[in-house]
Amino acid sequence: MCGIVALVAPRDPLPAGALAKATASLRHRGPDAMQCWESADHRVGLGHCRLSIIDLTTGGQPIANEDGSMRIVANGEFYDYERE
Fold this sequence. Notes:
mainly beta; 8% helix; two-stranded antiparallel sheet; single chain
């Protein structure tokens, strides 16, 4: 099962390295990949440790929408993803 982390700092930017450290602490939950994203103002951070079972090559997270204005992390599968 993947590991996810979200950090929010409403007043001050996130401490340097806090997101990477929190994400790395979940490495045992998803040893196949580890990725982080921080907002431009460094007040929101998302991290993901990936366990690859399905979609081994293109399942990286956090996931962005088309213009990069929104990000999500998800733990689990997107059901009915094969239907077009």
